[in-house]
Amino acid sequence: MQSDPTTGHYIMIADERFLNYAAREIAAIAGAGNVVPEYLGASVSVVKIGAEPEGLLARLREADPVFISMLIPVIGAIPVSGTDIDRIADALPGIIGGGHTFRIEAVKAGAHPDVSAKGIEVAIGERMERNGFRIDLASPEVMVYLILEGGRVLVASARACDTDDRTIDHFRLENRSNDRLNRSELKLKEAFAAFGIGGAMGRCLDVGAAPGGWTDFLARRGSGVVAIDAGLLDYRNLRAGRITVVEKVGGAYLEREFSGGGLGGAAPFSGQGPRAHDVVHLKGAVDDFGDALKGMAPFDLACIDMNVAPMESAGVAVRLAELLVEGSPMVMTIKLTDISYVERLDRIREALSARYSGIRIKKLPHNRMELTLFAVRSR
Ligand SMILES: C[S@@+](CC[C@H](N)C(=O)[O-])C[C@H]1O[C@@H](n2cnc3c(N)ncnc32)[C@H](O)[C@@H]1O
């Protein structure tokens, strides 16, 4: 099967809410005069870039953009008239190769009004399966993007193993998984993958923890978690060992233990931090628990997911830094209550730089109007 020359075309994956910012990032990386946006879509766009692919992709990695999730070179084009499913399905193996499981995502770039993108994906997938190809919608080894233009279909493919972990999250249909307490948990899972956080995390601090998705993720992995929130955690569904709830009553800390039947009687807080897999819920605002936190420090990871203005979260991160082991990671969401905050991310970097280094900010797949920041507690 013949392929059209497609040199210089790339599929850019970026959330449509932040497309302008992604376009600015690619212009800064490739040089504004070198970038021609050909199709801007909900999450998949096509750009033509006058730069040699290897250098470009290296510069992209180095620039560590916030809003561009992936840039994938177009590797083939199939000439078609109308929506010729059979022709596309028969030409694809010659372009993407075989021997792997795959998933197709079709994007209608203006043409083919008679059939939905989903319908095209299903029809092509079925025909390819009949020809011995294996589809895996949940966790494919190769993701294939088909951009249906008038007269031709552009093809790009990304192999999960060739790309970073963030890419894999784009491939996997995590939304349908039940192995989690809430959707929020996926944001922390993605942050762990994107920023290379791993291994046993020891003792973790989770600020803005209710209803407990991040706490569940951490405790399930064997960490001891100190969760802070005035709101209730979903104790019944937390996959943790011992769960202790601590409240400040008239200047004293009181603790109650949760068992299957509910919360037990109150007793003075022992001051003991959680052991592996256990959760201590400090029920109140983070600033109410200064002494208790000092007693349970040091922490090996701090997570902050408070629904407050970004500079307020940054202030909490700075105040908590002294409780963190040097070199330990900190993950914080930046809630874009005001979209113009995107222009002021440097203010957050600057505020944090007194106590943290290696600051990176990403729009992760499960972030909505927010971004995720990663940093390391510095000396
Ligand atoms: C988006 S929710 C957190 C979701 C949570 N990470 C999860 O996985 O379920 C934001 C939380 O921040 C909490 N919050 C806001 N200000 C806070 C403060 N000063 N101290 C502690 N928690 C706070 C709110 O009560 C709210 O429950």
Describe this structure in words.
The chain is α/β, with parallel strands linked by helices and 379 residues long. It has two domains: 9-169, VC0802-like (2-Layer Sandwich); 181-377, Vaccinia Virus protein VP39 (Rossmann fold). Helices cover 27% and strands 29% of the residues. The protein has helices spanning 19-30, 53-63, 85-96, 117-130, 165-171, 184-194, 213-220, 290-296, 310-320, 345-352, and strands at 9-13, 35-39, 44-49, 70-73, 76-79, 101-108, 134-135, 142-149, 152-159, 203-207, 224-228, 243-249, 252-259, 262-263, 267-268, 279-282, 301-304, 329-335, 356-362, 370-377. The strands form three sheets. Strands 10, 11, 12, 13, 14, 15, 16, 17, 18, 19 and 20 form an eleven-stranded mixed sheet that branches. It has a five-stranded mixed sheet with strand order 5-9-8-6-7. A four-stranded antiparallel sheet has the order 2-3-1-4, with helices on one face. It starts with 8 loop residues before the first strand and ends with a strand. The structure holds S-adenosylmethionine (SAM). S-adenosylmethionine (SAM) binds next to helix 6 and helix 7.
